[in-house]
Design goal:
45% helix
């Protein structure tokens, strides 16, 4: 395994957060979708998510009767590791 392959993972939260930065919805997507169709990623606060796009990509989690939409694949494992933390942050 090359050094590059060894370090190309998301086993540390900082790596996942850095990788995920900027993966939210674009301003154009937000404008086209409308306010009810948009959510904020509970892991990457400030990243907007088009709910339908996130659901189509499997980027959502249900926790205590509430659905949370995620901005990228890296946010799923972080949410799964401590859903109460991220559900509280999104509330």
């Amino acid at each position: 395994m090359s050094e590059h392959d060894h370090h190309h993972g998301h086993d540390e939260p900082e790596q996942a957060a850095d990788h995920c930065h900027g993966h939210g919805a674009s301003a154009e997507q937000v404008a086209d979708a409308g306010a009810d169709a948009i959510a904020e990623c509970p892991v990457m606060i400030g990243s907007t998510v088009v709910k339908a796009d996130a659901e189509a990509a499997g980027l959502f989690r249900d926790y205590e009767g509430q659905r949370y939409w995620l901005c990228c694949d890296a946010c799923g494992p972080l949410f799964d590791a401590d859903p109460a933390k991220y559900a509280t942050a999104a509330a």
